[in-house]
Amino acid sequence: MSILIERGTRILIQGITTTEGRQHTSLMLESKAEIVAGVSPGRYGQEVMGVPVYDKVSEAVKRHNVDIAVVF
Fold first, then answer.
1. For the chain, what is the HEC assignment?
2. Which of 4, 24, 63, 64 could crosslink 36 through cysteines, CB 3.0-4.6 Å?
3. Which sign, positive or negative, has the C-alpha torsion 35, 67, 57, 27?
4. Are 40 and 57 within 8 A, CB to CB?
5. Percent of the chain clearing pLDDT 90 (strictly above)
6. Residue 28 and residue 16: Cα distance in Å, rounded?
7. pLDDT mean over 12-16
8. Radius of gyration of the chain from Cα atoms?
9. Residue 1 pLDDT class (50, 70, 90 cuts)
10. Is the sign of the CA dihedral 68, 35, 40, 72 positive or negative?
11. Which of 42, 31, 30, 28 is nearest to 12 (CA)?
12. Of 29, 54, 58, which Cα lies nearest the Cα of 41?
């Protein structure tokens, strides 16, 4: 089974405030990926490169339509 990610796929980044999360978020945004939210416990209300950050995945998916999640 293959998983296809298309332009317009709405992405949530778990661990967006980590070094790896920030690095890959930057690369993904440069390639025009649609990152709608990030999650990092204790970082609610922050933004990373314009992406809103939430404490929990459940909070993020209540506010944004999310198709997939990437974990760092």
1. CCCCCCCCCEEEEECCCCHHHHHHHHHHHHCCCEEEEEECCCCCCCEECCEEEECCHHHHHHHCCCCEEEEC
2. 64
3. negative
4. no
5. 90
6. 12
7. 98
8. 11
9. low
10. positive
11. 28
12. 54
* 55 token code pair: 């404490």
23, exposed or middle or buried, with CB in 10 Å at 0-12, 13-18, 19+?
Answer: exposed
Higher-confidence residue: 51 or 7?
Answer: 51
Q: Specify the pLDDT at position 5.
A: 83
Q: Quick one: tokens of 11? A: 């992405």
Q: Where are the domains of the chain?
A: 10-71
Q: Which two tokens stand for residue 10?
A: 């709405």
Whole-number Å distance between alpha carbons of 1 and 14: 24
The dotted CATH code for 10-71 is 3.40.50.720
